[in-house]
Amino acid sequence: MKLKTLSVAMILATVPMTGAFAAAMDRTGQSISAFLQPGNYAEAGLSVLDADVSGKDADGNNTGDMASSYHSASAALKIQATDNISVGLLFDQPFGAKAEYNTGDHNFSSINPITGMKEGTSAEVTTENLTLLVGYQPNTNWNFYAGPVWQQAKGEVHLRGLAYGGAQGLGVGAYNANMKNDDAWGWAAGVAYQKPEIALKASLTYRSKVEHELDSHENIMTGLGPLELNASTIVETPQSVNLDFQTGIMENTVAFANVRWVNWDGFSITPPMFKQVTAAIPNATLVEYNKDQWTINAGVGRKLTEKWSGTVSVGWDSGAGNPVSTLGPTEGYWSLGLGAQFSPATNYFIQGGVKYFWLGDAQGLTVSSDNVGQFKDNHAIGYGLKFGYKF
Q1: According to the model, what pLDDT value does residue 165 have?
Q2: Which of 85, 201, 275, 382 sits between 20 and 30 A of 157, alpha carbons compared?
Q3: What domain range is 106 assigned to?
Q4: What is the pLDDT of residues 104-159, one digit of tens each?
Q5: Residue 196 phi, psi (nearest 5)
Q6: Within a domain: residue 3?
Q7: For 329-353, how does the pLDDT look when each residue is reduced to its tens digit (9 = 90+)?
Q8: Which N-terminal residues, if any, form the signal peptide (predicted)?
Q9: Are strands 362-365 and 324-325 parallel, antiparallel or unpaired?
Q10: Within-domain flag for 2
């Protein structure tokens, strides 16, 4: 079977690969599809995810929507330097979390003894990646690639309320941690195979873990006054493997799939002062995951006209363990996505997509209890837009 040239490959990448609170802190899926485009190529994209995550605390009170929406930017430049050598530079924001509890819930808020104002629990973690890949193509079918990964990470956490009573039981009235931006290095490597006459593409990509040493300022408000500490917090973002596959199934139609594994098992964030004041509590951490994440996305893409093509996809995510941190209380998801591509000319295109997530139910976990709340029947919706240019 010989297929006409297709422009529908992996439109799925225009919308978020994961949910804001599904699968730990995985946000983008870390695709390298731009690097595997033929010839010289550049792209820029933006995705937005709006989640609605709420539940009931241990007393049966509604927590309110604690999920803050977020946006994620991406960009890529790929140069075919020679017939056998290609170079790519990829930017994304792969891992992160953003949560904020309504100050009306006493289990996740408290009164500041100095200002007299009610304050709520909140947290935000962000990362940025810059990946340099160099590929060797011994022939038209194979591509072997590898290169360094530069990553930045930072975080900020504010814990309040009765849900964190384990810390309060040691005299802690409020806890704050500001983990300043840190740069660190990792690496990526993989292999790809293609057979253009049947629209076959397959790639396997490994990314290493990246260890950060974050300069951290912690302060705790106690009944005897504030305590402060400046020290370092060690955080390792996880290693991962992506398997991508696409093949033609009829003229102008392709089937595609992505399988992603992320090594979240054993991941934790435990600043030094937090560790000290919770020393009497076994395995106390701010954030902890006890299971690796598996994500599968699969679908069909079709060229509809000379300028328009579209995709439909379904997805499943295993999550990273349950119970989970109250800073991200969902366990995996199911999703349904739709994408479209408009190509005004042969050398550039615009892609857009939307994806709906059914987020898995979860049990909330803090340092003081493995069941401070139940989070059920939650959802999210993601939007994406991407521009691509061939030159």
Answers
A1: 58
A2: 382
A3: 11-390
A4: 666 777 776 666 677 788 889 999 999 999 999 999 999 999 999 999 999 999 88
A5: -60, -30
A6: no
A7: 788 899 999 999 999 999 999 999 9
A8: 1-22
A9: parallel
A10: no
In angstroms, the CA 196 to CA 205 distance is 20
Tokens of residue 27, six digits: 């946000």
Q: What is the pLDDT of residue 186?
A: 98
Cβ neighbour number for residue 372 with a 10 Å cutoff = 27
Task: Judge whether 1 lies within some domain.
Answer: no
Q: Are 357 and 22 in contact (CB under 8 A)?
A: yes
Alpha-carbon span 338 to 336, nearest angstrom: 7
Nearest to 373 by CA among 196, 162, 215, 188: 162
| Domain presence at residue 337 | yes
Structure tokens at 82: 């020679």
pTM of the model: 0.91
**Burial of 289 per CB tally in 10 Å (0-12, 13-18, 19+):** buried
Confidence class for position 23, pLDDT limits 50, 70, 90? low
Question: What is the CATH number for 286?
Answer: 2.40.160.60
Chain segment 197-214, per-residue pLDDT in tens: 898 999 999 999 999 999
